Amino acid sequence: MEYVIIFVLGSVISWISLMIVIPIAQKWAEFSMPPWPETMWKLAVVSACGNAVAMCLDPINGFLSWIVGAVVFWTFMVKWFDVDFFGAIVIVIISWVLRVVLGGVLIGILMSAFAAM
Known about the structure:
Blueprint (H helix, E strand, L loop, with lengths): L1 H28 L6 H22 L4 H20 L3 H32 L1
Helix pairs in contact: 1-2, 1-4, 2-3
């Protein structure tokens, strides 16, 4: 059950960060972006696939899970959004920083909620 919760929370955090990062990266790297409804579901698939691969490989090797997750993420972004190398670097760096911040905020909220119980 804990893996399902971690997968869902990780996918949601990843999706939210990508929803924020993609428009910013599009301005800097000038890549094509489909209409918003299509972009939203494609980013949800990218988030879920990246998290699924990372969670499956994490017990084997944490570094390997990060590398394979980044390759899956980059492949989906290149296929669906026509991102070049510079755009992929911008997206990965900004989304990673934002994901760490969002994860920290979520953990802080959960910790304070459990402490109040």
